[in-house]
Amino acid sequence: MTALIALHDGETVRILTDAALTRLTDGVLAKVRSKQIRLENGVVIAGAGTWQPCCRFAALADELANFDELADAAQDLWKQALAPMSAKDREAPGGLIVAGLSEKVGGPDMLVIEMPGSKLSDSAVAYAIGPHSNSREFTGRFLKRFADDPDAFDVRAEGLLVMEALRRHCPRHYEEAICPAIGGFIQLTTVTRDGIETEVLHHWPDRIGQSIDPDATADLETRDESFWGTTFAEVYRMRENLAAWPGLPAEAILPWPSGDERMRD
């Protein structure tokens, strides 16, 4: 599990995720890819925690017509997505954000599913989760500050600060190591009445096959194609029936996972 932040102010839903997938044994960076899935029905799904049920949920959601249909079926679909998992994995912490345009509310809307327990909320205005239990110190501050006033959130400045704090000060406890779990890049997706837009706010110079360095920083303005090429050695593609995110490097896009990879996002 790494980081997932979402806010809903009534007019806009904003979702922030990082892009690191690390090995459960030692925390080494295994893959870098978007943790947000955009479906053809106009729904965006973002997850933190075990990635496989998020993908299974997205595959089921892709069969529905729109956000409102998905909202009505979300609890049942999530149970189906969790069904193949062991009881232990179902108790792992994590979160799922579902966002899109709702005809019922007349604008953008958001659902939150929290793990463990599969608690669904259709009224949350702010949500945040980090890679470890001590993340609550930072996510709690975020929620306390912005839950009552989501308009006050400066996503470009404060969103980056929250992500950096979680990366630097909230390492994940792996089986053989304690090290950062947040990395790759920060993806921001914005859902409004006009549609859905996504962009990369920031990226870190993390290297696949190495542990994440919490002190490593990178300037988004100075990145170039050679950086992406040396950082992401493999080129991934999304399922053909899903729309690829505009503005993201092709190397950031992954297909549905196969098998039970011992990795967490």
Would you kindly provide a written description of the structure presented here, covering whatever features stand out?
With 265 residues, the chain is α+β, with helices and mostly antiparallel strands. It has a single domain (4-264), classed as Glutamine Phosphoribosylpyrophosphate, subunit 1, domain 1 (4-Layer Sandwich), CATH 3.60.20.10. It is built from six helices and 15 strands. It has helices at residues 51-61, 67-82, 87-90, 136-146, 158-169, 225-231; strands at 4-8, 13-17, 20-23, 29-32, 36-38, 44-48, 94-102, 107-115, 119-121, 126-129, 172-173, 178-179, 185-192, 195-203, 263-264. The strands form four sheets. A five-stranded antiparallel sheet has the order 10-1-2-13-14. Strand 1 (4-8) and strand 2 form a beta hairpin. It starts with a strand and ends with a strand. Mean pLDDT is 80; it is low at 219-262.
